[in-house]
Amino acid sequence: MKRLIYSLVLVFTLAISANTVSAAGKTDKIKTEMTAEQQIQLKRITDRVQEIKSMDKSNLSKSEKKELRQELRGLKKQANALGGGVYLSVGAIIIIILLLILIL
Fold first, then answer.
1. Does residue 87 come out as left (phi exceeding 0), alpha (psi in the -120 to 50 range) or beta?
2. 3-state SS of the chain: helix, strand, coil percent to 5?
3. Greater pLDDT, 15 or 63
4. Which residues fall within 8 angstroms of residue 99, CB to CB, at 6 or more apart?
5. Phi, psi for residue 89 in degrees, rounded to 5
6. Top mean-pLDDT range of 6-15, 25-34, 66-75, 95-104
7. What is the spatial distance between Cα 53 and Cα 76, in angstroms, rounded to a whole number?
8. CB atoms within 10 A of CB 63
9. Which of 36, 38, 37 has the alpha carbon at shortest distance from 84?
10. For position 99, what pLDDT does the model report?
11. Of the residues 18, 25, 48, 80, which has the maximum number of CB atoms within 10 A of its CB?
12. How far is Cα 58 from Cα 100, in angstroms, rounded to an integer?
């Protein structure tokens, strides 16, 4: 009976992971197909972040520091929108957790 349950879980896991892997492959293609404008904008964002990191923040007032944090958050959102990413579905996460529990 255990063998049957383990084999069914294995088949189900492989079926779900195939969809997750194909979805992950699509996001990688999107990353490589950035237009020239997007690459330039991403370069500007990274340059600005490096500039902010290299600043001496000890002389800034509390409100100026707050503005810098807000600007960094906005830049991070813009970079994430340009870069894409790999996302896991809730079902895939549950299956991974169940497999870890069964194995350990």
1. beta
2. 85, 0, 15
3. 63
4. 9, 13
5. -75, 165
6. 66-75
7. 14
8. 8
9. 38
10. 86
11. 48
12. 47
* Contact (CB, 8 A) for 84 and 30: yes
Q: Could you tell me the two tokens for 49?
A: 């972040």
Tell me the two tokens of residue 58.
Answer: 């000890």
CA neighbor of 95 nearest in space, from 19, 38, 10, 26: 10
Give the type of residue at 84.
G
18-70 confidence digits (pLDDT tens) = 555 444 445 444 445 677 888 888 899 999 999 989 988 889 999 999 999 99
Exposed/middle/buried for residue 49 (C-beta within 10 Å: 0-12, 13-18, 19+): middle
Rounded distance, CA 16 to CA 95, Å?
9
Q: What is the identity of the amino acid at 34? A: M
